[in-house]
Design brief:
Distance between the termini: 25 Å
Structural class: alpha/beta
Largest sheet: 11 strands, mixed
Number of strands: 15
Strand content: 15-25%
Length: 378
């Protein structure tokens, strides 16, 4: 991790997604001669797009300056909708300026100067697309040792990292799992959620190949999860969200009150390619896909201690993302200063396993496929 500070003391945290996961897994390995693994570098290599992003940014900015914001500038039926559009454009312009400053600082620090190793993600087999929810039975397991364990389902083999437990099941079964989840601890110190928001991309995937798409949930279904029973007064709850303003409003207005949480902070996850540039231009109109997602940080409604105040100055997380859809970077290393020394953590809708975590979802082993890892020579 690295802290980046720009004008007005605005801070971002640079996360090396692959390095964080590798370190997180292998620091738990304390047995002499035990096998160690690392994620394949091809999973974190984004080629720069052939289009001239600078030209695209300049054109986009010109349209905004001239008052031509395409869909965002079309007359609305109500003043409220016009205000929403104006606020959205203003926010996107601020993100664009902030992102450019962060990228400039990162490149000054030569973060993206890499050794001359040819890495081609385009020819790397997309193993994760071969595995769907039907490949896993409903089961639960744990690895309480200090070495990797192996398990096999069907034709594929999976790595189970040290110090983790998991439940491969439908998240809507959470109420039935409460006795098992809370058997060894009263509550969780950190809960991370990456909800399967309804979106066009996944609907297109499911039309093309059913096994590629995951089960999407609506707000009413998400609100039924018993988050309130899983938290204590110093719990931190982190929720990943799309750029849909509808989803963002639902988190603040519906999910957090239902889960007995209050919003502490929201920040952006800015995605860069391997050359140190945004993976695509920020679309000021708000119509096209953006090079960022949102992360909402919440705490217990009755929490009186401002133990998360230091998060307020962090406006963004910056990283080169995995080429696997919805493979989020681990955020425990960043949040660890606000948590107990050995935190009890829970990830809901998990797609890979983490030490110190209980992971729940229909695809908890999907990205633990051993074909995505290579052995480290001891």
């Amino acid at each position: 991790m690295r802290k980046i500070v720009i004008r007005n003391n605005i801070t971002a945290i640079y996360l090396d997604h692959r390095e964080l996961i590798n370190n997180m897994y292998n620091k738990e390995i304390i047995s002499n001669g035990a096998e160690k693994f690392k994620l394949c570098p091809e999973l974190f290599y984004f080629h720069e797009r052939p289009s001239d992003s600078r030209h695209a940014n300049a054109k986009q900015q010109s349209e905004v300056d001239n008052g031509d914001t395409s869909v965002a500038a079309k007359p609305s039926k109500s003043n409220k909708r016009k205000l929403d559009k104006f606020e959205a454009i203003t926010e996107l312009q601020s993100i664009q300026i902030m992102a450019e400053d962060f990228v400039q600082q990162l490149n000054k620090q030569k973060i993206f100067e890499r050794p001359n190793i040819i890495v081609d993600s385009k020819v790397f087999p997309r193993f994760w697309e071969e595995i769907g929810t039907d490949d896993f039975p409903q089961f639960n397991g744990a690895n309480t040792t200090t070495t990797y364990q192996h398990c096999r389902f069907g034709n594929y083999s999976y790595l189970i990292p040290p110090n983790c437990r998991f439940f491969n099941c439908d998240v809507m079964e959470l109420p039935k799992l409460l006795p098992q989840l809370l058997s060894s601890s009263e509550h969780f110190d950190l809960i991370v959620l990456d909800p399967p928001w309804r979106n066009k991309y996944i609907r297109r995937l499911k039309r093309a190949r059913k096994e590629l798409g995951y089960q999407m949930l609506n707000i009413e279904q998400l609100s039924q999860m018993p988050i309130k029973q899983l938290i204590h007064e110093r719990s931190i709850v982190a929720i990943w969200c799309t750029n849909s303003r509808e989803h963002q409003r639902a988190i603040v207005d519906e999910l957090l009150p239902t889960w007995h949480l209050r919003l502490q902070h929201k920040l952006y996850w800015l995605k860069l390619n391997t050359s140190g540039k945004l993976i695509r231009s920020i679309d000021i109109s708000g119509v096209k896909k953006q090079p960022f997602e949102m992360l909402y940080i919440a705490c217990h409604m009755e929490s009186t201690q401002n133990f998360t105040d230091s998060l307020q100055q962090v406006k963004a997380l910056v990283s080169v993302p995995s080429i696997v859809h919805s493979h989020k970077p681990p955020i425990l290393p960043w949040l660890s200063e606000m948590l107990p020394e050995q935190p009890n953590c829970l990830e809901i809708f998990a797609r890979y396993l983490q030490p110190q975590f209980t992971s729940i979802g229909l695809e908890v082993l999907k990205l633990m496929d051993d074909r995505l890892y290579s052995s480290i020579d001891n």
